[in-house]
Amino acid sequence: MAEIQTNGRAYESLLEKVLSMNILSSDYFKELYGLKTYHEVIDEIYNQVNHVEPWMGGNCRGPSTAYCLLYKFFTMKLTVKQMHGLLKHTDSPYIRAPSYIFNSS
Fold this sequence. Notes:
Radius of gyration: 13 Å
Largest sheet: none
Number of strands: 0
């Protein structure tokens, strides 16, 4: 299956640099190393994501859960079929959201 091609830039440069650095250093993102499959990441989105803003709200100004999971998808190099699966997923709008962010990056 063909891997999704980016616009020629490395995935590290698809997000704002400060956001990328904060994602990479966040404890939550480090916990995501344990998720090895596309389906495990989708399950994590379904169970943990409740907004798709890049930053957490309130007094905690770390990267959001949604953007940490988006970055996890960047590192997984999704296939075209997997991307279509995200676009058409019916369980939660938060599962579809990363595919729209991918396309706007």
